[in-house]
Amino acid sequence: MQKNESMMIILSGGIIGIIASCLVYFGNPMNMGFCIACFLRDTAGGLGLHSIATVQYIRPEIIGLILGSFIIAVA
Questions:
Q1: Is the pTM of this model over 0.90?
Q2: Quick check: 38 and 32 in contact, CB under 8 A?
């Protein structure tokens, strides 16, 4: 593994950690942060695929990830 590749991996991890900390600071539960599995569970509830009332809402993070991925793929 090249040094540049290692630095990119470390930088990416740091950025994701900062994003997760900001999400908790701005209102996500402390045990969730940037938990894709939790976001998918909540979105499934929002679409009516399960009946647990406390986790039935569409997560804006999932919408952002999908739109961001699409924009990067098109670019």
A1: no
A2: yes
